[in-house]
Amino acid sequence: MMQGNAYIWVGYTFVIGLAYFLFLKMAPRLNWYDEPNERSSHRRTTLQGAGVVFLLAIVTAYFSGNLQGWPAIGILFAGLVGLAADHAVMPPIHRLVLYAIAWVLVFTGLRFFDLPVWWVLPAFMGCLAWINFFNFMDGINGMMTLYAGVALATFWLMSPFLLEWKPFIAMVAVVVLGYAMLNVRKQALAFAGDIGSVSLAFMLAILMLTLIGQTNQWGYLLFFGIYFVDAGFTLLFRVLAKENLFEPHRKHLYQLLANDIQVPHIRVSIIYALLQAAINLLVLRLEVLQWLTLPVIAVIAGILAIVYLLVRFKIRQMIQNQKNQQSFFHSKQSI
Q1: Cα 290 from Cα 320, distance rounded (Å)
Q2: 229 phi and psi, to 5 degrees?
Q3: Among 134, 196, 204, 213, which residue has the fewest nearby CB atoms (within 10 Å)?
Q4: pTM, whole model, 2 decimals?
């Protein structure tokens, strides 16, 4: 165990920092680059795959006794699938099956399959969806990092229920902080890649499932509420538009803000993180007051949905007005 030993934590932090340094040196030699395309939210060729360092946290957590074997194997397996997806063409359905296998390993190790089927089935399906939702964040500088930081800080505050997980939370936080130094910039030095976003998605989902499993309080899903609302409605709109759900897109609200409205990436990421932090603090306060009941959860979720739709409608109007102005300008030039 790494609890209480300052020297070990200093050593761990140094190793993580060294790992990022080595990544910056080795990634160009390995040609680990993310080449922007029409679906990208960035315009510069950028190093990709910094999330390989995330797996170091998993290995350390296992050998220090802070993560069981099967969950560790599951996350490592998912991370390696992400690494393969970063550097080779892999059909989405193949990735989905492999991620499902990884989740089976995690659920087995944490004994989630011992819980009622009405708990296990939606949790399992939700975890598969969560990976795909979370993966999009890494395209906006700082989005994944700041959002994960808010989540980890919130889980840290849930110490009565996640006391045994606090060393693991701290290990992940050190890795995320190191990645922030590369990514929370106007021009990112590196992206985590699928290997990082998928691994981190697994880590956060495990903490969430553990918390819900111990408390039977599904209201804690609001800790991811901002992104659930954005991803859920984006998926709904794509279904209504009869789009291929396996194809990449740039239709999340934060992507519209960054790409179409040209709001700076970091500003968008900070807004999302601050809004989520405010919701998390509200949820924590309501739980202390024992007011986090199903009707209250529904009201909060409903307010989030309404505000989101209003903002999205306004942003869509702004984008359409920009297109109309550009079309008018081009028509004037052609006369």
Answers
A1: 45
A2: -65, -45
A3: 213
A4: 0.92
Q: Strands across the sheet with 190-191, in order?
A: 33-34, 46-48, 190-191
| Helices of type H across the chain | 6-30, 54-63, 69-87, 92-109, 117-135, 143-157, 159-162, 166-183, 193-215, 225-240, 253-255, 265-288, 294-334
Partners of 46 in the β-ladder: 34
Q: Which candidate, 129, 162, 86, 94, places its Cα nearest to that of 234? A: 129
pLDDT at residue 328 in the model = 53
pLDDT tens sequence across 242-254: 888 878 788 999 9
CA distance 39 to 102: 28
Q: How far apart are CA 79 and CA 193, in angstroms?
A: 10
In one-letter notation, the amino acid at residue 193 is G
> What pLDDT does 88 receive?
85
Task: Tell me the two tokens of residue 6.
Answer: 């300052």
What is the pLDDT of the chain when averaged over all its residues? 91
Cα-based angle 58, 61, 64 (whole degrees, multiple of 5): 150
